[in-house]
Amino acid sequence: MGKPVKTIFDETGSIQPGQLKTYNAPAGHITDITASEAVNFIKNYKNDKPFFAYVAFNAPHVPRQTTQNYYDLYPANSIELPPSVVDNTPLNKNVKYQYAPDPLRSKTMQQRVQQNNAMVTHMDTRIGDIIKSLKDKGVYDNTIIVFTSDHGINFGENGVAGKVCLYEPSVTAPLIIKAPTVTPNSKITARVYLQDIAPTLFDLLELESNEPTDFQSLTPLLSKNGKARASIYLAMFDDQRGIISEDKKLIIYPKTGT
Fold it and tell me: Residue 101, SS3?
């Protein structure tokens, strides 16, 4: 927790031959394959010791694909967009488009929202299968589940589209924690870091880490006894910086001086 994380991008910024394992992947949609692997793992679990499963769905993400039955739930032409979606705006004339440069057109955004909603619904259905497998195994009540994402995304809000900016739709990600000691259906509105998950799990599991960390457990907030941070620091690559408090946000663009 206190050591720098090594990644395959450290040296060149790209994936090099031999850095990733390749294999003959099974046929099917990756959302279904990922969920099925998790379900099989749980079914084969021997109940003789604690287990850990990291289930990394690719959805919602490019390629924006799922099965037709999920698209049909969200007709594109019926999707309402924010009023900030303006067709035919030149992307290269406004600084904010340089940081989230997806095409900002009504028809495109309706399709993107449809695709996103369809992929999320597909994933949600398969997460239900994983939860069912935990219940069938008799371990659901004693299992900690953390659901989150690495970022959000803009679908025309604030006149931008995409994820590479510090506006609210981009920096706000879901974070759901289910644990035996967490009150069901409780909600926390405090700003947190995703890196807080690690110390939170240590607390929930009643374990101690020998490594220092700059982040904090959320268990005091989960028990309603904690105090939220006064502010959260934001950054995007080397060209966007921000800080957000309970009711204010400041974003600066060092390269452009704005």
Answer: strand
Q: Is the dihedral of CA 76, 80, 81, 83 positive or negative?
A: positive
- Read off the pTM: 0.84
- The helices-and-strands tally (H runs, E runs) of the chain is 6, 7
Confidence of residue 92 (pLDDT cuts 50, 70, 90): very low
Which residues, at least 6 apart from 193, have a Cβ–Cβ distance to it below 8 Å? 215, 232
User: In whole angstroms, how far apart are CA 119 and each of 32, 65, 107, 123, 199?
Assistant: 11, 7, 18, 6, 30
Helix axes 106-137, 30-43, angle to 10 degrees: 10
pLDDT digits (tens, 9 = 90+) for 143-198: 999 999 999 999 988 888 889 899 999 999 999 999 999 988 889 889 999 999 99
Distances (CA, A) of 239 to 99, 120, 169, 250, 255: 9, 30, 19, 14, 6
Query: Could you give the CA distance from residue 183 to residue 222 in angstroms, rounded to a whole number?
Result: 8
The structure tokens listed for 43 are 């079914």
- With a CB cutoff of 8 Å and minimum separation 6, the contacts of 138 are 47
Structural domains of the chain, ranges and CATH numbers in brackets:
30-178 (3.40.720.10)
End-to-end CA distance of the chain: 34
Residues contacting 61, CB < 8 A, separation 6+: 119
Least confident range of 33-47, 95-109, 153-167: 95-109
Length of the chain in terms of residues written: 258
